[in-house]
């Protein structure tokens, strides 16, 4: 019995440390079958005009089905095989970089994760072009949150 109490207390301490040292996910918006967050603790300024931030895209069960279907269609179209764990897809983490004064952004990294937390696919873009932020998009919500 004492061992269970010690394990429970230790577990609660470890769980509470995640809030101190882990990400600080803030809700951005929900669109269709996807919910978007950004990590307030990850916001950095590599230069005066630029901001980098990690974003998380969480999918509903139906959203996962749609995403897997879209991904398979795109991969088939590009004549590539899809990863074995694609059916276990759960969420994505995306590293954005914003040019705040010019209202532009680019995606630097996309990591796709399975339900058990394993990386399914990772995309790193060497020299991505900046794109203008379209009104009403997730990128605009994120811009408004980090380019204050």
Give the helix/strand layout:
Blueprint: H1 2-21, E1 25-31, E2 34-39, E3 50-59, H2 61-77, E4 89-99, E5 104-114, E6 119-124, E7 131-132, H3 138-146
Antiparallel strand pairs: 1-2, 2-3, 3-4, 4-5, 5-6, 5-7
Protein architecture, described:
Strands 1, 2, 3, 4, 5, 6 and 7 form a seven-stranded antiparallel β-sheet that branches. It is built from three helices and seven strands, in the order αβββαββββα. The longest helix is centred in the N-terminal third of the chain and has 20 residues, at 2-21. The termini are far apart. It has a single domain (23-146), classed as Surface-adhesin protein E (Lipocalin). The chain is of the alpha+beta class and 148 residues long. 14% of the residues are buried.
- Low-confidence segments, given as residue ranges, are 1-20
Give Rg in angstroms.
18 Å
| Total DSSP E strands | 7
Which percent range fits the helix content? 25-40%
Query: Which structural class do you get from the secondary structure elements?
Result: alpha+beta
């Amino acid at each position: 019995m004492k061992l269970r109490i010690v394990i429970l207390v230790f577990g609660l301490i470890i769980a509470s440390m995640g809030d101190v040292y882990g990400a600080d996910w803030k809700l951005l918006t929900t669109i269709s079958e996807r919910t978007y967050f950004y990590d307030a603790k990850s916001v950095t300024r590599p230069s005066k005009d630029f901001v980098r931030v990690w974003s998380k895209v969480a999918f509903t069960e139906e959203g996962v089905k749609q995403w897997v279907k879209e991904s398979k269609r795109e991969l088939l179209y590009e004549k590539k095989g899809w990863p074995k764990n694609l059916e276990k897809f759960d969420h994505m983490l995306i590293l954005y970089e914003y040019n705040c004064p010019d209202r532009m952004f680019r995606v630097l990294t996309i990591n796709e994760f399975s339900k058990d937390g394993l990386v399914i696919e990772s995309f790193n873009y060497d020299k991505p072009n900046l794109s203008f932020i379209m009104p009403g998009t997730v990128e605009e919500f994120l811009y408004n949150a980090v380019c204050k």
